[in-house]
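Here is a typical protein record:
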Amino acid sequence: MHIQSIPMCKQYLSPSVFSRCCLDVRHHDQGTGSSNNYAYLVTDEASKDAVIIDPANPPEVVPILKEAIDSGKINLTAIVNTHHHWDHAGGNKEITSAPGDASKSVQLAQFKSLQLPVIGGKDCDQVTKTPKHDETFKIGQNISARALHTPCHTQDSICWLMEDGDEKVVFTGDTLFIGVLSLSVPLNDRNRGCGRFFEGTPAEMHTALNKTLAALPANTKVYPGHEYTKQNVKFLTTVLQTEAVKNLQAFAENNQQTQGQFTIGDEKEYNVFMKLDDPTVQKVTGKTDPVDVMGKLREMKNNM
């Protein structure tokens, strides 16, 4: 399995406003860039079959896909979405439909001819298939993709577990970031916070994180939808001062990108939203019931 990260730079003003910068970062490379939003190109190396995950901004994603297709590196077979928000599924229509702008037609016409299916939650734009929870499909010969329904950030949120032999990765969209859980406020209101989950409840997020994702093998690498690790660490240090948190803080200070560098096992060590039974976390929140601890932590994070 080969994973290519595609950071996308966007101004969070409206779905139609995007800045124009892009950095191509390979699976294990440490790159630089001012983006915080990721698309991912996942390729089965044996067959070259590939899917593109959350290609929100076609002007940044399409040139990379076109080069890979034209050079014979990939056979693009599907668009996969983690949820319906425009900064994840907003590029589906432009990639799958005939472009109205003639200047775009040369690049985009070949994608329309591919008749790409859109695999994702029921509310994703142009969706053609919504797998059931725990349903699987194949990417090429060797990659097995499994849908893990994790409703809360949105009710159609799906995390995608992909396995190729011993390698396991999970694409978590906006459900799990490195160090914390999802945003709870609209994208254009994220700095103020509103003390609630976007479309769900603390109980749903507790299930998503601590029952669904926590049940994955400890060595499963985490690929989130955004790069928020530096901000997340600032919150973690107000709750825990463990060695795991300090190690994450040091890594974040020295690396602009953290996707694929940490595992579900790591998250259980430093992510306070996955440590609801920890005495220190309970003391800081003043709560003991896991759902109450989850809700209080989210409120604290919103107000930070």
